[in-house]
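Researcher: I'd like a candidate sequence for this fold, 379 residues long. If you have to choose between options at a position, lean toward the conservative one.
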């Protein structure tokens, strides 16, 4: 946890809006994941925050990577470009999954020379991969319950359990190798039952595939969804890990390779946003604060990620209910209509914690306001 005094100091030095990334926290989260899920190979989902310095720190920790676009692939590749061709190829095969089930043909053509592992969830994708990336390995993305997740993914992605083995056999018929099955229980999943159901569905599909003669699968990808500690109601990873470890033990053979694609869990608590009050008005008896960061910038997760980031003050004092708006000339740029803050003045700094995931990753230049400056600490 970065001290409040350091955040203020950094804001004075670098100006605002400022986005601070704590690399000690990245390492701490990665190590906690490894400790609680020792059988699981950790593929950081780069989309959660694709800052190359984050990728670099996790690379040095020994992480693997889930990429979902060619630019994300190249951010990871930057770290291995000095390796010999053979070593680079082995590393990519062992440590990268291209986990976007639908890929443009141009991307597949670029990817093929790296022979990566890619996901798919429909017939059309099988034919596309066969034509444009025949050297890739495949993982079938399965549709699983996303009940209660903050971000639901199952309506856009995943083959239904009923069609799963037909798709695996179709890929096989087309000369492709399906290495295993992947799923995603929905992002920020606090309903741990989702993992139990997903593992049970996956085990049933492994069995059906085997019964129907397909025996090449050896990989179980349990996706992302691991919750970040946004508030005290979120149960710790340790509790979820106990459930996952025992279900994997119960349902799958010892030699199966297990991987996960955590994004949010690794980066959320490593990010801080510091901004300042640029305007103040009273509307309908309630104070409105205007700050120089908003939902088109670091607070983009309010819109895209359905996430609420409490706004905190460095000042103490009696608080009252107020609204906090972003700087753009757009009515959608509302960070919160209900924050409790002490009386603040123009140029006072405010900040948010736990804002490292799906935040500056989706910041825009809307209305001429650039994204917040990024500062790395404990790198
Ligand atoms: C395929 C895939 N894997 C992993 C992730 C990361 O999920 P999370 O940030 O919930 O851990 C996502 C997020 O959308 C995803 O789509």
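Model: Candidate sequence:
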């Amino acid at each position: 946890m970065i001290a409040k005094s350091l955040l203020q100091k950094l804001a004075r030095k670098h100006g605002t809006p400022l986005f601070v990334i704590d690399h000690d926290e990245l390492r701490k989260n990665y190590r906690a994941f490894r400790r609680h899920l020792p059988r699981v190979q950790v593929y950081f989902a780069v989309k959660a925050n694709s800052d190359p310095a984050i990728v670099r720190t996790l690379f040095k920790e020994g992480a693997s990577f889930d990429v979902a676009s060619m630019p994300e692939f190249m951010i990871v590749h930057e770290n291995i470009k000095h390796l010999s061709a053979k070593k680079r190829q082995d590393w990519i095969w062992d440590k990268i999954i291209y986990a976007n089930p639908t890929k443009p043909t141009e991307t597949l053509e670029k990817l093929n020379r790296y022979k990566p592992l890619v996901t798919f969830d429909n017939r059309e994708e099988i034919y596309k991969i066969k034509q444009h990336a025949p050297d890739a390995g495949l993982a079938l993305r399965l549709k699983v319950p996303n009940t209660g997740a903050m971000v639901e993914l199952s309506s856009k992605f995943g083959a239904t359990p009923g069609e799963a083995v037909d798709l695996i056999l179709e890929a096989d018929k087309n000369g492709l190798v399906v290495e295993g099955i992947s799923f995603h229980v929905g992002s920020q999943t606090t309903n741990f039952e989702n993992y139990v159901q997903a593992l049970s569905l996956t085990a049933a599909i492994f069995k059906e595939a085997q019964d129907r003669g397909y025996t090449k699968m050896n990989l179980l990808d349990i996706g992302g969804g691991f919750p970040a500690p946004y508030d005290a109601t979120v149960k710790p990873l340790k509790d979820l890990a106990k459930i996952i470890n025992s279900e994997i033990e119960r349902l799958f053979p010892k030699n199966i390779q297990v991987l996960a694609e955590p994004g949010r869990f690794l980066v959320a608590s490593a990010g801080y946003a510091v901004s300042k009050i640029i305007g103040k008005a009273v509307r309908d008896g309630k104070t409105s604060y205007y700050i120089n960061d908003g939902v088109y910038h670091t607070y983009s997760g309010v819109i895209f990620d359905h996430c609420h980031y409490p706004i905190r003050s460095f000042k103490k004092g009696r608080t009252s209910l107020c609204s906090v708006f972003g700087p753009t000339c757009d009515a959608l740029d509302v960070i919160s209509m209900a924050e409790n803050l002490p009386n603040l003045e123009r140029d006072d700094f405010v900040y948010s914690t736990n804002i490292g995931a799906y935040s500056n990753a989706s910041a825009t230049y809307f209305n001429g306001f650039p994204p917040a400056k990024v500062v790395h600490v404990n790198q």
